[in-house]
């Protein structure tokens, strides 16, 4: 920040001569521009009383040469030893007389030398807006002048670097016993312009005399090195960069950017806005065309221009398209045809899901997704297919019974909400629960008289820790069609024991959870009524009059046929008896 050289430091030159000759100083005076200036004064015990008085007069003399005011130079003073004390902040005084009064009343702290602590305070507090510093966007230079006579008792390099990074220009003035290495660690570059060392407080005025040749009258823009991309504007003691029309200054305060008209928020572009010299310009994403209004975008309809082959519906999406199926049907692997699902029959389906610790949480989520894919091809409704879910580990828990949900969406949402149980694998206990409770009318199963097929699907990944034989057999005796789906370490013998015959149609296996989806086609072909167990089943109440008459008629016909068969059998027996009697 060489631009700060024509600043209060000129006043250092004016007032660092013998005080009685200051008013006779010859040569031009620089009028300082806007500046936030903080003096950081060492008042440790090593500074003797008469030396501190010399420093006090030094500060008063400097103030008399500054253009002090709210819109010119603001001055703050802090003193430090083992602690830091604010003498007055930047925003405290706008009159020089008030500042001088506060400096003359200053009492030294006379303790240690914590220079790093003082720099930290200056950076975080003294140069804050709350203390009277102007905000960074005002681009008012911030200058700290540190005057010390000894070696710091804490670290200064890191905190001084942080202060410089925040835009504070640091001048380090060492007197008598000051450590040169510490001064260089604190000061801003170039060091030969920001580090000063004098032999005693009596000679501190030499601090100003060394700069007499370069403190005043320089056009910093003309010297070059300012880094401005477009324009450099000189002001007393500093400079700032400006941009040509149509550009704005970037965050580095040197580069220029095209004015971002799009950021104003009134461009109305549907997709993308690009700033140009002429204003905002709207563009559309790939696969879309800009409409005549210059703002709206329309997707290119590829479905009208290609032979898409979709069985139900084609939807354009940018540079491609995709096929859709009606609600309740799934898109097949060819991406065009639709799976029509279970639509003609009715089933009461109970799913027994293994929630033991061997499954693991991430795989249990895959199981839930697999269950929902099964639900997708079912006609879920109170009159169609009803679905219930039971989870088992060391115990059994009904997640939801058959009669609770009446749509596929409700079932799928309930499946996703199921929480993983962990623990053991009591498959036999789960089968018993299914037989005794899950297919009861209280749980939502339809009466046996309605002839609605009952299907149980057991999903497991390992060997059961209890006996399954009794309740697997009991389930089939109760007329429940059983399916067994095994994954990973599932035991084939147990799967066959659980499943109905033939096992080839009722047992499915996948080596891992990530490849289970290939089992869906087999299960759909087995579970769907129109493809298997209950094609054409119609729900009829046996109590309706027409049904009673029909039932009675069919029963009488069957009895009549049985009577005829019995008469024929009796005749044959009599014929055999006659033949035996003749042979005797």
UniProtKB/TrEMBL annotation:
It is found in: Secreted. Its main location: secreted. It comes from the Eukaryota. It comes from Mustela putorius furo (European domestic ferret). Major component of the extracellular matrix of cartilage. Interacts with COMP. This is Matrilin-4. The keyword DNA repair does not apply. Residues 36-215, 348-523 form the VWFA domain. InterPro entries: ECM_Assembly_Org (IPR050525), EGF (IPR000742), EGF-like_Ca-bd_dom (IPR001881), Matrilin_CC_sf (IPR036337), Matrilin_CC_trimer (IPR019466), VWF_A (IPR002035), vWFA_dom_sf (IPR036465). Pfam families: FXa_inhibition, Matrilin_ccoil, VWA. The keyword Glycoprotein applies. GO terms for molecular function: calcium ion binding. Residues 1-21 form the signal peptide. SMART domains: EGF, EGF_CA, Matrilin_ccoil, VWA. Keywords: Coiled coil, Disulfide bond, EGF-like domain, Glycoprotein, Repeat, Secreted, Signal. One of its GO terms (cellular component) is extracellular region.
């Amino acid at each position: 920040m060489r631009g700060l050289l024509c600043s209060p430091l000129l006043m250092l030159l004016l007032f660092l001569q013998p005080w009685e000759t200051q008013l006779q100083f010859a040569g031009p005076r620089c009028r300082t521009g806007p500046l936030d200036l903080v003096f950081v004064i060492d008042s440790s015990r090593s500074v003797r009383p008469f030396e501190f008085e010399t420093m006090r007069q030094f500060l008063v003399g400097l103030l008399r040469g500054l253009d002090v005011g709210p819109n010119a130079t603001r001055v703050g003073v802090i003193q430090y030893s083992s602690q830091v004390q604010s003498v007055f902040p930047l925003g405290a005084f706008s009159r020089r007389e008030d500042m001088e009064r506060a400096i003359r009343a200053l009492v030294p702290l006379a303790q240690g030398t914590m220079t790093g602590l003082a720099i930290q305070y200056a950076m975080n507090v003294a140069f804050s807006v709350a203390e009277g510093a102007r905000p960074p966007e005002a681009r008012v230079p911030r200058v700290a002048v540190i005057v010390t006579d000894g070696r710091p008792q804490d670290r200064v390099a890191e905190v001084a670097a942080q202060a410089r990074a925040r835009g504070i220009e640091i001048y380090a003035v060492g007197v008598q016993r000051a450590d040169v290495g510490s001064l260089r660690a604190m000061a801003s570059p170039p060091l030969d312009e920001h580090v000063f060392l004098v032999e005693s407080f009596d000679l501190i005025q030499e601090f100003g005399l060394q700069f007499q040749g370069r403190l005043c009258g320089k056009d910093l823009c003309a010297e070059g090195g300012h880094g401005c991309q477009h324009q450099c504007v000189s002001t007393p003691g500093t400079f700032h960069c400006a941009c040509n029309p149509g550009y704005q200054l970037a965050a580095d305060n040197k580069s220029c950017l095209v004015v971002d008209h799009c950021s104003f928020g009134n461009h109305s572009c549907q997709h993308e806005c690009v700033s140009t010299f002429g204003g905002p310009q709207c563009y559309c994403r790939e696969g879309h065309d800009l409409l005549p209004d210059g703002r709206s975008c329309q997707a290119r309809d590829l479905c009208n221009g290609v032979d898409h082959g979709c069985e139900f519906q084609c939807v354009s999406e940018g540079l491609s398209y995709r096929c859709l199926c009606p609600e309740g049907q799934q898109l097949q692997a060819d991406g065009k045809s639709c799976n029509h699902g279970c639509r003609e029959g009715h089933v009461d389906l109970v799913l027994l899901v293994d929630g033991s610790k061997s499954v693991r949480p991430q795989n249990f989520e895959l199981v839930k997704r697999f269950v929902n894919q099964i639900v997708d091809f079912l006609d879920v409704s109170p009159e169609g297919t009803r679905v219930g879910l039971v989870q088992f580990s060391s115990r059994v828990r009904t997640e939801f019974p058959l009669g609770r949900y009446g749509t596929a969406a409700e079932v799928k949402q309930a499946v996703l909400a199921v929480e993983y149980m962990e623990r053991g694998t009591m498959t036999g206990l789960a089968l018993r629960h299914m037989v005794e409770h899950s297919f009861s009318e209280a749980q939502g199963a339809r009466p046996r008289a309605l002839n609605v097929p009952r299907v149980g699907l057991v999903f497991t990944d390992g060997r059961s820790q209890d006996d399954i034989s009794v309740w697997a057999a009991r389930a089939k005796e109760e007329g429940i069609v059983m399916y067994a789906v095994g994954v990973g370490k599932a035991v084939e013998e147990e799967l066959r024991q659980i499943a109905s015959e033939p096992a080839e149609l009722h047992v499915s296996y996948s080596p891992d959870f990530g490849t289970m989806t290939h089992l869906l086609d087999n299960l759909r072909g087995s579970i769907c009524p129109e493809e298997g167990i209950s094609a054409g089943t119609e729900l009829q109440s046996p109590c309706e009059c027409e049904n009673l008459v029909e039932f009675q008629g069919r029963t009488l016909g069957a009895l009549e046929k049985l009577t005829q068969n019995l008469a024929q059998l009796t005749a044959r027996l009599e014929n055999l008896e006659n033949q035996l009697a003749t042979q005797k």
